[in-house]
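Internal tracking record. Fields below are filled automatically when a chain is submitted to the structure queue. Please do not edit lines marked as system-generated. If the sequence contains nonstandard residues, flag them in the REMARKS field before resubmitting.
Queue: standard
Priority: normal
Entity type: single polypeptide chain
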Amino acid sequence: MNGKNVLHQLTSQSHSQMMSYIIETADNKIIVIDGGNACDCDYLFSNIQNIRKSAGFDDIHIDSWILTHAHDDHVDAFYHAFEHRLGEFSVGNIYYKFPLRELVEKHEPSATHTVDRFNALLPRFADKAHIINKGDVIKVGEATFTVLYSPDFSITHNFINNTSLVIMAEIASDKILFLGDLGVEAGNKLLETDGNSLRADFVQMAHHGQNGVTREFYEAVSPKACLWDTPLWLWNNDAGKGYDTHIWQTVIVRGWMDELGVKTHYVTKENTTNRIMLPAYH
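SYSTEM-GENERATED OUTPUT FOLLOWS
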């Protein structure tokens, strides 16, 4: 046993936003959440390989891989792995809940290709794949993951983002709330039905920190630290004309966190990968 519980927040290997986490447990388990774009797969695997090597293993093994929702910047690394790198790695279990193709075609047709790719690849990992629902609990060694929200497919605005799974991870006494790209509508539903279950030490900022859930949602979470999967241009709301000159809401959301008294922020801007030792707050 390596004796360490570490949350690895990986930085993008391109100019694009993305989301990729590795959770390393003290009993040598590896959990991946999303993974990022296809160009992020090598970096994801090299990090896992280094973690495994430091624990005395010579392989790339993922005990559980959780996919929050079917958008390219969250699942393309997963697809790339199963399309091009079979035989280089192994996976124990895969957890997800994606909408049916016909719903995607109706409500967000630009994302249809993402669901099609998943369905085409499914035979390669069908024996490991599990659809998860609200209330499900996943135990991976010393880590526990509870599904607080699974998609309500009747929410059709901002469709794919609002199908994000919401997962509460409990590792070494710390709680980490993963929101994926959850939008206002699904966030409000979760806040109304389960607001008392949202409090966490860390919160992964919805939709890379802008156009996600509301200030009231974050107030219910009352985090001690925020996890921003946010490149510099998005962090500064700058599309080339200077600080806070574009339409993204990142600077506004940063202001909410200041108002809520959050002092600690882990941001992937400027090619920063954050490695957070757990427990951090207990």
